[in-house]
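Q&A FORM
Asked by: J.P.
Topic: structure of Ribonuclease HII

PROVIDED:
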Amino acid sequence: MSLLRLCGIDEAGRGPLAGAVYAAAVILNPERPILGLADSKKLSEAKRDALAIEIKAHAMAWGIASVSAQEIDEINILQASMLAMQRAYLAMVTDFGMHATLIQVDGNRSPKFDLPCEAIVKGDSKVAEISAASILAKTARDASLLELDTQYPQYGFAQHKGYPTALHLERLAEFGVTAEHRRSYAPVKKLLVVNLGNQAITPS
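REPLIED BY: S.T.
REPLY: Here is the structure written out as tokens.
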């Protein structure tokens, strides 16, 4: 009988108005347990960053992948999240040459894989492998938003990480839509329509 090799997968960044959605896949090493794994949203930024280092050092295999804002607009955020999970698993297999025997993903829907896959509601709080994946996905996405902050310092990405906070909406209205904003999301779409209307009535 083959040994169970469980891969946990989770995504981060479905709600923000800007940036890519990220996902991570993790196969933990039972001989090198990691203490403190939990839903990334319930951990401090410092704790997440510390655990991400441990996960990368001690897991049997891990992978991180993303789907861009442009792709999100083309296929919608649900499909983009599924695609990010598939890409994360592929990245793990490519980098470590290791397949799982079972995949568990956080949530109530799972992407298609060529092996058994289960969706676990609140899995990031119940399954250590999914918790680890949620931490890697969250820290990778936060790092990408810090990079965006250096490209677009006026938007405050380092503070709001792309979420529709009052600050973000204020800066979006003041400075306009960037190439990294998700145009299919209502606040961004509304602003584009307003700006288009203003341009249409602007005298030449």
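FOLLOW-UP: Confidence is low (pLDDT under 50) at residues 197-204.
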